[in-house]
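Same chain as my last thread, 127 residues:
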Amino acid sequence: MANDEAQGVEGDLLVILRHGPHGSSWLREGLDAALVAAAFGRRVTLLFMGEGVTALMPAQQSGPLGQKGTSPTLEMLEMYDIDTLLVEAEALARFGLRAEGLMLSARAVEAKELSVLAATHSLVLTF
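reply #2:
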């Protein structure tokens, strides 16, 4: 990623979401942390990696035992001015997904760009 591109995703907080929407509460907790930070005026960037990219699949259903989906929370991101959404390109390929087919607009990033992303944010949280 060129320095000009890194400037485009600079922010206060980078939240890395590595878990899928079902099976644990990590994804929900990461999204909640992002919403709280945004509510307090932080500029938030979300990076979906690994299984986390599956949270952006359209038409999410409830999980086992009635576990709520994360679609309603994801749909609230715009209200909190969280509009920088990034997805790991390798994870998209692994799950047979394309950035254009996700429920929200997100930019795919290559593995070589990840260290620059972390360096351009003052705080990084991983869920």
